[in-house]
Design a protein that fits this description.
There is one protein chain. The chain is mostly helical and 179 residues long. 61% of the residues lie in helices and 10% in strands. The strands form two sheets. The chain has a two-stranded antiparallel ribbon.
Length: 179
């Protein structure tokens, strides 16, 4: 355990770097997963599209940090991020046809986090602000992302991120926000 992000300890190395490098070198190859069939002793090979692998590789570490911050567990945050990206893999073609694959992916992550947080109680930011505003505040001020990084991650325009950020900071409860 090497680094701490606001009380969440996590391993030094982050998943996804090797996959991103491979996707850059072999853009049409994709990733291969071998699964052993429980019925027969044969392997089933699944090849994931290269664009999905690259998309997930760029987001996994930040999805994990965000999830871990929300639920205060690096292990659970990592599992939630992986599950949300697995959900995206099932919907990848639809995501590519949508106005914003990043926005769809962020919604899938948000649903997973909300299901997990439900039993633990909602954090003060998400009780006080809209989900979008609270997420922008967490990404910008707790995880230190730029406006551009936040907009890319959430699938929003930079203007929408700025509006959400300013609205959150101007809210009547702003003085009580745990920044």
């Amino acid at each position: 355990m090497a680094r701490t992000d606001h009380g969440v300890t996590h391993p030094k190395s982050l998943c996804g770097a090797a996959e991103a490098a491979a996707a850059r070198r072999f853009p049409h190859a994709g990733a291969t997963a071998r699964l052993l069939s429980p019925v027969a002793d044969e392997a089933v090979e699944i090849v994931f599209p290269a664009d999905l692998v690259a998309f997930c590789s760029r987001r996994r570490a930040l999805y994990t940090r965000y999830s871990a911050l929300r639920i205060r567990s690096w292990t659970a945050g990592s599992e939630i991020a992986a599950a949300a990206l697995g959900d995206l893999a099932l919907l990848w073609r639809e995501a590519l046809e949508s106005p914003s694959p990043a926005a769809l992916s962020w919604q899938l992550l948000g649903r997973r986090v909300v299901r997990t947080v439900r039993g633990c109680g909602v954090d003060q930011l998400h009780r006080t602000l809209s989900a979008r505003q609270a997420d922008v505040v967490l990404l910008r001020y707790r995880l230190g992302l730029t406006v551009r990084e936040t907009s890319d991650l959430m699938g929003l325009s930079a203007a929408d991120v700025l509006v959400a950020s300013r609205a959150a900071l101007r809210s009547p409860s702003q003085s009580r926000l745990p920044l």
